[in-house]
Amino acid sequence: AQSVTQPDIHITVSEGASLELRCNYSYGATPYLFWYVQSPGQGLQLLLKYFSGDTLVQGIKGFEAEFKRSQSSFNLRKPSVHWSDAAEYFCAVGAQGAQKLVFGQGTRLTINP
Amino acid sequence: NAGVTQTPKFQVLKTGQSMTLQCAQDMNHEYMSWYRQDPGMGLRLIHYSVGAGITDQGEVPNGYNVSRSTTEDFPLRLLSAAPSQTSVYFCASSSQLNYGYTFGSGTRLTVV
């Protein structure tokens, strides 16, 4: 069965610092991978997705993620965070051709001024 | 273009009551799903649909029913509410050709 692990429950970084959120997945075939962001009291917004091709994908809000098959990872990065990036971030893997998604437990990001 | 619309936004039920959470999308998406979100547990799939007339169970289907008579609508029915069903419920839809679910703003349900 598919599964997603986000090892960090909570991360705190300073404004302007770089960010990397970790995501490891378990899936037998080529995965469909996603990162979502959720601001407090809001729904989820898609940041980026990977299906095939270039393993470094660019998303919205200056985020990027790199797919590493050998490590079963899809880590999210941003060179310089802004206070508005404070939110919860979810990694997800698509199953059955992305007909449904399996989510990780989420990483809550706090930004220090 | 409203995207995915969920109603109501908030609901309080008594144990044993039934209700239907409404979900509608106007993007002509084939795929629709219901998730529940609980603290520390991420989002868990309740039921999903790959097209009108086709539904299947997700990870936590017990106590919930769905049907999909049209492409646009995917209601979630709680048959007999229990306190364990207190949660935030999200509906989402996705195109079959351009993957990536679009989420509604959620329904916060409390069962007392």
In what range is the share of β-strand residues of chain B? over 45%
- Largest inter-chain contact set: A-B, 23 and 25 residues
Number of strands of chain B: 11
Helical content band of chain B: under 10%
* Portion in strands of chain A: over 45%
> Average pLDDT of chain B, to the nearest integer?
95
Subunit organisation of the chains: heterodimer
Structural class of chain A: mainly beta
**Number of separate strands of chain A:** 12
Q: Characterize the biggest β-sheet of chain B.
A: 7 strands, mixed
Structural class based on helices, strands and sheet pairing of chain B: mainly beta
pLDDT under 50 segments of chain B (min length 5)?
none
Helical content of chain A stands at under 10%
The run of helices and strands of chain A is: EEEEEEEEEEEE
Compact summary:
The complex is a heterodimer of chains A (113) and B (112). Helix content of chain A is 0%, strand content 54%.
Write the topology of this structure.
The complex is a heterodimer of chains A (113) and B (112).
Chain A: E1 3-5, E2 10-14, E3 19-21, E4 24-26, E5 32-38, E6 44-50, E7 56-58, E8 64-68, E9 73-78, E10 87-95, E11 100-103, E12 107-112
Parallel strand pairs in A: 2-12
Antiparallel strand pairs in A: 1-4, 3-9, 5-6, 5-10, 7-8, 8-9, 10-11, 10-12
Chain B: E1 4-7, E2 10-13, E3 19-25, E4 31-37, E5 43-51, E6 54-57, E7 64-66, E8 76-78, E9 87-94, E10 102-103, E11 107-111
Parallel strand pairs in B: 2-11
Antiparallel strand pairs in B: 1-3, 3-8, 4-5, 4-9, 5-6, 7-8, 9-10, 9-11
